[in-house]
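SEVERITY: medium
COMPONENT: batch folding queue
REPORTER: lab tech (J.R.)

DESCRIPTION
The queue accepted two submissions in a row. Attaching both inputs and their returned structure tokens so the on-call engineer can compare them side by side.

ATTACHMENT 1
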Amino acid sequence: MARSRRPPTPRKAAARPARRYAPRLSAPERREQLLEAALDVVREHGYAGLTMEAIARRAGVTKPVVYDAFNNRDDVMTTLLSAEEQRAVAEILTAIGAIATPAGGGPEDLAAFVVEAIGRVLRAITERPRSYELILLQVEGTPALVRERIDAGRATIVARVQQIVEGLTAGPDGTSQVDAELLALSIVGLGENAAVLALTDPEHFPAERFDRSLRQLLTAFLRFSAPAPARGAGRAG
């Protein structure tokens, strides 16, 4: 009589590693996470390296997660720049708007405003350098759309500085005694150059160094630009 054979024992399938899922976040939290990742990608690889795959890899999620939050790369870039540019412009306008600027104050008050304004802006930049790098530094492959947005934000700041300069240099008739537009452009340009140095080499160019140097420079300028006393003034008749 034939012996019955046992059916072969099925082999256990090798355990598959558990699939890693992105932590569950609300839609706003997810967008914020992905924008932070996009900002890191741009800082490290320029705009040319900003792809949906790069964003997903940086954030530790899959590409579909990125596409759930943004339509495409341009959508990410526009949203990122809009958020950072608006935040930066608002911070700068708040910083310079909080400075006391007496109307018709004279050259000394104008010099004090320049020093205080640039100092406040530099302190704001040192608190959030990553965001300001996107706006102030020449990032490789910056698209024309990005440059246009940055230029628009800069024009807003220049216009506000010009208003302040006009108020500080107003004569008896209420009109500015200087070329307020050109002076405002110069002040903003000086601030931008200081910001770039502070961002690229913060240890060598701390905000305190600019504060001290600007005070020395403007004090010397005011001293040498002051009208010379008339000859014979103060002599006994």
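ATTACHMENT 2
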Amino acid sequence: MISHLVVLSVLSTHKVLGQMVAPVGGTSIFWNPGPRYGCYNWVQEGASGAVNPEKGVDCAPFLNPSNTRNQSRADSCVSFVNDVNGSPTCPTWQFDTWGWSYAAGQLNASPGYAGTFSSGSVMLRNSARDTTDCGLYEVTLSYQYWPGAIIKYVTGDFSRETNLDMAAHFVVEYDVLIESDPTALAGPRGNCNGDQRRFLTTDFIYTFGDQTNLLSIVHFNPTNLGPPIVPWTQNTTAGCRFLVQLPQYTIQEGVQTHIGLDFKTLLQTAGTNTCHPNGLPADIWPQAVQIVTSNVGTNMVVHLSNVDAQLASSTTPVSSGSAPSSSTSPPPPPSSGDTQVKFGQCGGQAWTGPTACAAGTTCQVQNIYYSQCLP
């Protein structure tokens, strides 16, 4: 599996829900409908061995190479290859954890973590409020392509391997509800030096050449953590990791919200932060799609449904919390004459929102894509 990628983030207090998208003419890259049938694995990241034996109860139909169960395609491992020994290798739905220990009895405990599949919906619980340290704890829903496993089925053509070259758009979408919790921050350790993290992100992990890269989009951070936590980027010869906050993708707790991210467009605009400054390279392979809760001294319960990732010929705008719009024109951007709040975005390449900052803050350049109102 992919090793844990520690990402730190910030979110503007500017609560503009903004414009999401939905795929048009799309084909899912998900090989099995795990959330529908309760098929999943638990994986404890940062630990070796079979430290978390919990699994779903109905994975057998998807783990049998001779399976012909049809969910709009031939759900069979024979449509995958393994670079090591040539045998079929299936991608899987996973609950991933970081910081928590199954051996210590923290599954379905508090402090602790939990994850459930029920009638196509997924619940993630990350209860770190009453921990005795200020460590980072994560609970993640992940669709994971294991090393060497690449899907070949796209619109009936098994001779082609799935990569982002195959369509104009790559859209990850789902519906999400973060439970309102007025006691989520009332932990015993204070504010952990200002870091009371309570984040929700959508992560896309992908490879090209010999690099493994991550682009992470922040949706929720009610404690409004500021620098130096973000912008966060790490570029090495092994790959680039970039976490970005964009107001149009933020959500609020207690509100059912539709998330729709065109990662191909996002990757095209991320530039040097994602190790391909001259545009998208050829042969970008999906490695994992993840929905991540990250907590330091806080609690969080998230409900997910209708999770999908599609290669699509086009997209249509979707207002957060609504069904896809019949219009193909996005709403007008906020006026550049408005005043941005503290820690809000105030500039960057293609930014059309407020450029003036609230009293006591100034607009400071973080990178060519993001400037922020900082004290």
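NOTES FROM REPORTER
Residues 334-375 form one domain.
No errors were logged for either attachment.
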